[in-house]
Amino acid sequence: MRYETMLPHQIRRAIAENWPTVLPLGVLEYHGEHMGVGMDTLAVVKMLDLFEQEADIVILPPFYYGAASYAVAAPEGSGSVQVSGNALAPFAEELFFSLLRIGFRNIHAIIHHQTENFVAGMPTDLAFKTAGRQAIFRFLERERGEGWWGSQNMADYYAEHAEGENPFNWVQVHPLMPTGTTLTEYPFDHAGIGETSLMLALCPEAVDMDRFADNTGWYTQTAKDASAELGTRGRDMILAHLRQILAPPKR
After folding, report:
1. What does the alpha-carbon distance between residue 167 and residue 133 come to, in Å, rounded to a whole number?
2. Domain-embedded: residue 71
3. Pairwise CA distance, residues 122 & 127, whole Å
4. pLDDT in tens, 4-46
5. Is residue 244 part of a domain?
6. What are phi and psi of 109, to 5 degrees?
7. Which of the ends of the chain has fewer CB neighbours closer than 10 A, N or C?
8. Residues 170-196: pLDDT tens digits?
9. Please, where are the H alpha helices in 70-163?
10. For the whole model, what pTM was predicted?
């Protein structure tokens, strides 16, 4: 369900049943002359639309204003929007803290931008990862008081942690594609055959292959071989990944 259209009784049900509450997280960035600047975020939005057809889920309004950087192209005339990670982190902490106060305990942000480096982290995902931890600590201290972890009530913390009961799982950040995706599974690129095919399968209105000849960037050259058929393979791989990461945890 789209959060902005939910009624309070529906929100209470989602909380009671521990539905995944998901933030599509991304950027507005130049993706060559043949593809829309919102590709990274649109991929997440469209995949969640598909996942919603098979599972109960709360989909938050997408956040497009991440740290695109100007590594691919200068912003003038290209459309890239850059908001630094230092500016993102305070916003993200307030957002996550608010969602925790509402009652959600199964919160996820899913990102596609720069996730080939997801383990080490890049500015947008690092800002939201750090913000999630900060929001959880802040919320726990508000609800349980200082010294909450050291209290006798937490004596079973490590045993419960081993069984999956972990408050630090209340907010998680994930890449859209499974970590370690290789070229043999699906092409990972920027505005090349992989991303262009995915958009042809998920959001064809964001692609205009008649503009491909206007590209000058090396990273777009494989896009000429893109197809909706290949994109469908990527879609199915991502759906399987979403089923794993959005499975309801223990409470």
Report:
1. 10
2. yes
3. 8
4. 999 999 999 999 999 999 999 999 999 999 999 999 999 999 9
5. no
6. -115, 135
7. C
8. 999 999 998 765 556 899 999 999 999
9. 85-102, 123-144, 157-162
10. 0.94
